[in-house]
């Protein structure tokens, strides 16, 4: 079985996997980074969102063979102490209900706010539209993104 | 310190003394009304591990408090709100409280289920009494040490104070307190003295959620654990004929390919366990892999042949049969007041409408999964279930094991919405583990989850009302539903008691498609139908919609009846509140408002939807929601539930399209099934009635009314009445956003 060298949260990992294995499952089952969630497996819901070279990406659609050489960040590596402005905003607004989709929501929001620190409501709604929350915590997410934007600008 | 097990213990003394055996660092108060009367003492107290028995509260000698959350957490917030009840009466700082999810413990806890929005309502008194009793014991211990009367001492925020102003912390007297008699006749706080109940309290798991720590069933791991993917029939009505797993078995990550079903069939000969669905009698193929991906990939490589065993049903034929049933006479009458037929015969006018819904999958974000490990010593089950006790009983029956062998640990759930009331996936996991003799986690893919669900049944209502001299004289509700829906108390909801001649009838259409509870079962579509119907009635009667409701509720007030399950005063209260907060009826140019007022799950809710037209197309701009759920225990959690319920209701009323053709579901993932997304959500403005009445649940009640409010607003905006779900498919202009 081929091996792959991955750089995740600034640490180097070597994993053995079929080349078509989605990075999602390598993260969860092999590297034990379970903060990245499985929900649809076809890039429709955003629960598995990670950063690759700073860009929000769906780890269920990214094959492990494509991930070599990328600078990968998962929710576990977003901040050392859970105090990224987006995480702090999520806490301040008490966004989660069941909480399952929220690491994906946070990763999408964090990548978006790196590029746009003063977003309009419409821009936030467009940026977050790819992430499903079955509990429909959407209005709290929108509010939290605004709070985080203020901290990051 | 007492550690001897020779002392004879009453139930109550056990409950405090047993804790001393845990090593003395931590003390547990595990008692009273929230526990079962026959909570048993373990055989050998000296062998007690603190994890071996349950406790609602532990207080360390440092004064830190651990509170066990007994009920399953599905996102409804009980892991936070239920411990708040204990902490309030115990009178400690919330910052000093650490909440731990308790395992299933049928010996000692009551009713560890999540369903029907009942957790807070049922535990309001018992949990507060538990906290208050523990506090009194601490006060008594301090008083004894000081040599003063306990009645001269008070306690607040973890500190006891006597008449001389001397203070002592809970942690300092906790060992002495545990050796005292358990006091009776404990008085509870006056709601005006609450310091924790009613304060905004963040989700106790918030730090773990935002940093991606393991919390959910899918996150659970154990050494040596393998994974299983189950191949089930692609259509309802099919069973396994044969399969070829040669290719799959050659894959390096595949450990084995087996079948299950034999034990489940044997179990069914003794009857279906509670909270399990009608299990298919088919064999299922199970691919066991080293990782989840190995199992999923292996499953795709198995060649299967299925044969038809019973009807392959289609929505088209359901629609016809349900309409035939609605027009027929096979009903069971659920409630009958007066004589609707006579009222209809004597009426000036009879209004009759039919409303139609689709099936709905639950689509919890975390797909069904469960861990099982079956050993000669015990059966260990870990994962997300709303009904852990039923799961344990079903597995005991499945494997022919005594219930004492079954241990269930609960994980936080990535959503429930009713799906995890049913333990079909737990039964599967246990049968797999029993067969392969390895710790295993059964994991459903999204496709498995959506296509082998326990769906909200497709349902149709025919509602007729008679009008005579400008008054409503009769109301006749008929339900025809796949596998049935109507439940005992529902006929006692509004307008029961408000109209002299009132009848509710229902008839099921038997189907092999598995159906069950979906968030706010019984009413999630009924409310849409009735609240749309009342809007039309008001128009027919040429009366103001709000006035129509106020008058009908006045009728109930004049004739109180035990067969009315709602409070007319509280329904009027939320109605008036929503009218005021939303400016309902005061015309704002370009804004079209729809009203809905409903009672279910013991909570009273009124909602107004504001729709605007954007290039001629309706867009839901804002929802105003007024709620009377009694005392609001956690305003933050309550707001989340209220908003979430409204938006969930909008999403499913507008977009959710799920049907069957020849037994095969019409969608299998989010690419073919639309859930509401952020861009489609309106602002939700929530108002809670001020109240000192005991709290009722919020996990469900804001969902049922919203579809009616939206339909009524769209009617005002476009002139089109909506009778069929999803609204999106039935709007004359299909380009609706919102």
Detailed description of the structure:
- The complex is a heterodimer of chains A (153) and B (738).
- Helices cover 35% and strands 15% of the residues of chain A.
- Chain A has helices at residues 23-30, 85-93, 102-115, 121-128, 138-152; strands at 3-8, 11-16, 49-52, 55-58, 71-73.
- Chain A is globular, with a radius of gyration of 15 Å.
- A 5-stranded mixed sheet of chain A has the order 2-1-5-3-4, with helices on both faces.
- The termini of chain A are far apart.
- The model of chain A has no long low-confidence stretch (mean pLDDT 97).
- Chain A folds into 2 domains: 3-77, Roll (Ubiquitin-like (UB roll)), CATH 3.10.20.30; 85-152, [2Fe-2S]-binding domain (DNA polymerase, domain 1, Orthogonal Bundle), CATH 1.10.150.120.
- In chain A, helix 2 packs across helix 5 and helix 3 runs parallel beside helix 5 (138-152).
- By secondary structure, chain A is α+β, with helices and mostly antiparallel strands.
- With 738 residues, chain B is an alpha+beta fold.
- Chain B folds into 3 domains: 11-211, Aldehyde Oxidoreductase, domain 4 (2-Layer Sandwich), CATH 3.30.365.10; 217-310 and 368-443, Aldehyde Oxidoreductase, domain 4; 331-359 and 456-730, Aldehyde Oxidoreductase, domain 4 (2-Layer Sandwich), CATH 3.30.365.
- Helices cover 30% and strands 23% of the residues of chain B.
- Chain B has a 7-stranded mixed sheet with strand order 10-11-8-18-15-16-17. In chain B, strands 13-21-20-19-14 form a 5-stranded mixed sheet, sandwiched between helices. A 4-stranded mixed sheet of chain B has the order 1-2-3-4.
- In chain B, a hairpin with a 2-residue loop joins strand 19 (459-468) and strand 20.
- Chains A and B meet through helix 1, helix 2, helix 3, helix 4 and helix 5 of A and helix 5, helix 8 and helix 17 of B.
């Amino acid at each position: 079985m081929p091996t792959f060298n991955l750089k995740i949260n600034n640490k180097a990992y070597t994993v053995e996997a079929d080349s078509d294995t989605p990075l999602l499952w390598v993260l969860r089952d092999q590297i034990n980074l379970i903060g990245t969630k499985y929900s649809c497996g076809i890039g429709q819901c955003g629960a598995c969102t990670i950063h690759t070279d700073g860009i929000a990406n769906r780890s269920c659609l990214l094959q492990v063979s494509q991930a070599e050489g990328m600078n990968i960040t998962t929710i576990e590596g977003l901040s050392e102490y859970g105090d990224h402005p987006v995480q702090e905003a999520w806490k301040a607004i008490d966004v989660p209900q069941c909480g399952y989709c929220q690491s994906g929501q946070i990763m999408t929001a964090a990548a978006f706010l790196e590029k746009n620190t003063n977003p309009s409501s419409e821009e936030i709604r467009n940026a977050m539209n790819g992430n499903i929350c079955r509990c429909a915590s959407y209005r709290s997410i929108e509010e939290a993104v605004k709070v985080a934007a203020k901290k990051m600008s | 310190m007492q550690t001897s097990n020779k002392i004879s213990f009453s139930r109550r003394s056990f409950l405090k003394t047993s804790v001393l055996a845990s090593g003395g660092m931590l003390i547990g108060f595990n008692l009273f009304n929230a526990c079962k009367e026959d909570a048993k003492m373990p055989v050998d107290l000296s062998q007690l591990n603190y994890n071996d028995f349950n406790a609602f509260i532990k207080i360390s000698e440092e004064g830190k408090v651990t509170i066990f959350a007994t009920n399953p957490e599905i996102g409804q917030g009980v892991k936070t709100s239920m411990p708040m009840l204990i902490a309030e009466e115990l009178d400690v700082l919330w910052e000093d409280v650490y909440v731990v999810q308790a395992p299933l413990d049928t010996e000692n806890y009551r009713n560890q289920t999540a369903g029907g929005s009942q957790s807070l309502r049922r535990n309001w008194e018992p949990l507060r009494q538990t906290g208050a009793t523990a506090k009194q014991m601490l006060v008594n211990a301090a008083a004894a040490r000081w040599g003063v009367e306990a009645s001269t001492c008070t306690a607040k925020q973890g500190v006891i104070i006597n008449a001389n102003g001397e203070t002592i912390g809970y942690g300092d007297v906790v060992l002495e307190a545990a050796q005292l008699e358990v006091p009776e006749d404990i008085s509870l706080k006056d709601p005006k003295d609450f310091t924790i109940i009613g304060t905004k309290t963040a989700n106790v798991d918030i730090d773990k959620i935002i940093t991606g720590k393991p919390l959910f069933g899918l996150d659970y791991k154990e050494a040596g654990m393998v994974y299983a993917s189950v191949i089930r029939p692609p259509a309802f009505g099919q069973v396994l004929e044969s399969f070829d797993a040669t290719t799959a078995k050659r894959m390096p990550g595949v450990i084995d390919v087996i079948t299950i079903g034999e034990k489940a069939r044997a179990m069914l000969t003794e009857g279906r366990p509670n909270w399990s669905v009608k299990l298919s009698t088919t064999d299922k193929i199970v691919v066991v892999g080293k990782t989840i991906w190995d199992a999923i990939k292996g499953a795709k490589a198995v060649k299967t042949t299925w044969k038809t065993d019973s009807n392959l049903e289609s929505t088209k034929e359901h629609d016809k049969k349900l309409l035939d049933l609605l027009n027929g006479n096979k009903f069971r009458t659920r409630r009958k007041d007066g004589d609707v037929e006579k009222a209809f015969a004597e009426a000036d006018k009879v209004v009759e409408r039919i409303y139609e819904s689709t099936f709905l999958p639950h689509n919890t974000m975390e797909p069904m999964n469960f861990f099982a490990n079956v050993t000669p010593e015990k059966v260990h089950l870990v994962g997300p279930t709303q009904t852990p006790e039923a799961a344990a009983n079903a597995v005991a029956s499945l494997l022919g094991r005594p219930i004492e062998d079954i241990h269930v640990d609960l994980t936080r759930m990535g959503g429930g919405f009713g799906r995890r009331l049913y333990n079909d996936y737990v039964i599967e996991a246990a049968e797999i583990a029993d067969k392969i003799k390895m710790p295993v986690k059964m994991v459903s893919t999204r496709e498995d989850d959506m296509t082998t669900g326990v769906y909200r049944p497709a349902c149709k209502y025919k509602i007729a009302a008679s009008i005579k001299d400008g008054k409503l004289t009769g109301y006749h509700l008929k339900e025809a539903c796949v596998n049935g829906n109507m439940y005992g108390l529902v006929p006692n909801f509004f307008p029961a008691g408000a109209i002299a001649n009132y009848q509710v009838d229902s008839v099921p259409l038997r189907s092999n498609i598995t159906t069950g509870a979906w968030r706010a079962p019984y009413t999630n579509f009924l409310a849409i139908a009735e609240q749309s119907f009342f809007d039309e009635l008001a128009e027919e009667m040429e009366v103001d919609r709000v006035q129509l409701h106020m008058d009908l509720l006045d009728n109930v007030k004049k004739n109180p009846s035990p067969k009315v399950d709602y409070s007319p005063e509280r329904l009027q209260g939320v109605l008036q509140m929503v009218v005021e907060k939303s400016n309902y009826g005061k015309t704002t140019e370009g804004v079209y408002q729809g009203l809905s007022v409903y009672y279910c799950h013991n909570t009273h809710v009124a909602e107004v939807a504001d729709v605007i037209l954007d290039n001629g197309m309706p867009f839901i701009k804002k929802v105003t929601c007024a709620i009377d759920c009694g005392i609001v225990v956690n305003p933050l959690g309550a707001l989340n539930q209220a908003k979430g319920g409204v938006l969930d209701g909008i999403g499913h009323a507008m977009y959710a399209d799920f049907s069957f053709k020849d037994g095969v579901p019409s969608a299998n993932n989010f690419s073919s099934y639309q859930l509401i997304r952020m861009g489609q959500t309106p602002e939700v403005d929530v108002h809670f009635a001020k109240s000192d009445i005991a709290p009722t649940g919020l996990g469900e009640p804001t969902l049922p009314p919203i579809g009616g409010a939206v339909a009524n607003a769209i009617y005002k905006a476009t002139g089109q009445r909506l009778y069929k779900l999803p609204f999106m498919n039935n709007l004359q202009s299909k380009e609706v956003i919102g």
